[in-house]
Specification:
About 15% of the residues lie in helices and about 50% in strands. The chain has about 140 residues and is an alpha+beta fold. The protein has a 6-stranded antiparallel beta barrel with strand order 1-2-7-4-3-8. The longest helix is centred in the N-terminal third of the chain and has 15 residues, at about 20-35.
Length: about 140
């Protein structure tokens, strides 16, 4: 490359690369474009929980007495509340209890007590779904 061209590229802050094999150039451009793509967010449902009783506690709010019907609910799962098949709340757990103990997870077939962050309008028959989200890197086809 002529010195004048190199000097102009440096002053304009243009990245100049030299390749002896065209495939290296194509691969590098493709990788750069893939890096600019926003990742896809994939949701995985980890548990299905039925609300069977509601307990109103003055200092804590509403506690839902629940039965884990499928999967396993963990303390750090995100949750959504479904009523009549429609999502009415999406958020996180404030507490997860088994009998009177705070627990990290509750398996299918067991009862538990659940309090949600910022939501106290639970009703008997509501379904709470626990889910996790993961980012999937997108590729150019």
């Amino acid at each position: 490359m002529p010195p004048a061209t190199r000097k102009l590229a440096e002053s304009e802050e243009v990245d100049v690369r030299l390749y002896s094999i065209i495939y290296d150039c194509i691969n590098e451009v493709q990788l750069a474009l893939e890096g600019m793509l926003t990742p896809d967010i994939k949701e995985e449902i980890t548990s299905g929980i039925e609300v069977r009783a509601i307990f109103k506690i003055s200092k804590l709010g509403t506690i839902a007495g629940c039965m884990v019907q499928s999967g396993k609910i963990t303390r750090n799962d995100k949750v959504r509340v479904l009523r009549d098949g429609f999502e009415i709340f999406k958020g996180t757990l404030a507490s997860l209890k088994r009998i009177k103990d705070d627990v990290r997870e509750v398996d299918s077939g067991y009862e538990c007590g659940i309090a949600l962050n910022g939501f106290n309008d639970l009703e008997v028959g509501d379904i709470i779904e626990g889910y996790k989200t993961t980012e999937v890197k997108r590729k150019l086809s």
